[in-house]
Design goal:
Elements (H helix, E strand, L loop, with lengths): L1 H19 L3 H19 L9 H9 L1 H6 L7 H9 L4 H24 L5 H10 L5 H5 L1 H18 L3 H12 L16 H4 L1 H6 L4 H27 L1 H4 L15 H18 L3 H11 L5 H4 L6 H8 L2 H11 L3 H23 L5 H4 L9
Helix pairs in contact: 1-2, 1-7, 2-6, 6-9, 7-19, 9-10, 9-16, 15-16, 16-19, 19-20
Length: 360
């Protein structure tokens, strides 16, 4: 646990220096240092996270699983394990860590405003479902890495490449297929008639209608859908409890986040609008989590765009008090998510003690 916090402090210090510096050499040094620090944390990890040994077993049994009619592991992941056999399980972990970090770093450095790069790394490292959970859920982390590439194609209005990337991601985790409807977001940017039809506040009306329809469908048929996918759900028995509403403040907060990203998306055009709308769809999944908490894994795909979407909002919001207020709310929300993670009976026991191959 202390190792993780130390890594966070080092990377955040580098990102603050990068955001503040105008010298290209300093920025390059800060980026390289952050990448190296994170790779030294990810690469040598040993028995860290809930599923470390499960993936170890899959790696050594990948040939048999690939030909088994009862196998539930995606074939893309199995083929990757087979290709990495000459390098060992450690080679698989290091290789996937390098590719994952490269995709995330490229996304942040390309899309996030320079002034708020530090905030992007804060959201990456402190929000558990953006980083720590990925150390355990290696298949989905790899799928999310491909989705990060797909989102950039979507923002560039290259729908065919977006769809191909999503299908590729589904070879590593089937849940990625749920992201296919996001292609709709780019359609108004490609078609002038649709752009006029869905201009202004109409986008919010369309999305709110979709949200309400989705919530109603989940409340009516959600339990049945989960039962019909029981074989898939059984793979995650430790994560499948239903969510609870409690005071309802969390639901209201996330509904507010949805409206916030939609509102600022309407104030942007082109690439930035698409990224903000994708981030807004994170909160369309919330109703499903009350049927089964496993649905929160679907939120991990669009949520990764938060690394760029929130900095975009703060950059274009000229009113200082509103800018500071939005930033404070999301920083507090992220810290609350981190606190819940470290006090969770599901995750905390397997993440508090960091071990590396160097100490074993």
């Amino acid at each position: 646990m202390l190792e993780y916090f130390f890594v966070c402090l080092l990377v955040l210090a580098c990102s603050v220096a990068q955001s503040a510096s105008r010298r290209g050499s300093v920025r390059v040094f800060c980026v390289a240092s952050s990448f190296l620090v994170l790779l030294l944390f990810l690469g040598p990890r040993y028995s860290y996270g809930n599923d470390y040994w499960s993936y170890f077993d899959v790696y050594h049994d990948s040939y048999r699983l690939l030909s088994s009619p009862y196998n539930q592991i995606e074939k893309g992941w199995l083929w990757l394990n087979i290709l990495m056999q000459p390098f060992g399980y450690r080679g698989l972990i290091i290789g996937t860590s390098v590719v994952y970090l490269a995709a995330i770093f490229f996304f942040i450095l390309r899309e996030a405003p320079q002034r708020y790069v530090w905030l992007s790394f804060f959201l990456l490292l402190v929000e558990p479902s953006n980083f720590l959970v990925h150390l355990s859920a290696m298949r989905q982390a790899f799928a999310i890495m491909i989705f990060v590439v797909a989102v950039q194609f979507l923002a560039s209005k290259k729908l065919v490449l977006f769809l191909l990337c999503v299908f590729l991601a589904s070879l590593f985790h089937r849940s990625a297929l749920a992201m296919l409807p996001l292609a709709i977001i780019a359609l108004p940017e490609l078609n002038n008639r649709l752009s006029r039809l869905l201009s202004g506040r109409r986008w919010i009306y369309v999305y709110l209608a979709l949200y309400l329809i989705f919530a109603w469908l989940i409340s009516k048929y959600g339990a049945h859908w989960v039962d019909s996918l029981q074989a898939e759900v059984d793979r995650y028995r430790g994560y499948t409890e239903s969510g609870t509403i409690g005071t309802g403040l969390g639901v209201l907060a996330q509904a507010g986040f949805f409206v916030l990203f939609m509102y600022y998306g309407l104030r942007h055009r082109g690439r930035e609008r698409i990224l903000l709308f994708v981030c807004a769809t994170t909160y369309l999944v919330v109703p499903l989590t009350f049927v089964n908490a496993l649905a929160a894994r679907l939120m991990m795909y669009p949520q990764i765009t938060m690394l760029v979407a929130l900095p975009l909002i703060l950059t274009h919001e000229k009113r200082k008090h509103i800018r500071w207020g939005i930033g404070a709310v999301f920083i507090a929300w992220t810290l609350l998510a981190s606190y819940r993670f470290w006090t969770s009976e599901v995750y905390a026991p397997n993440f508090k003690m960091y071990e590396s191959v160097l100490s074993n």
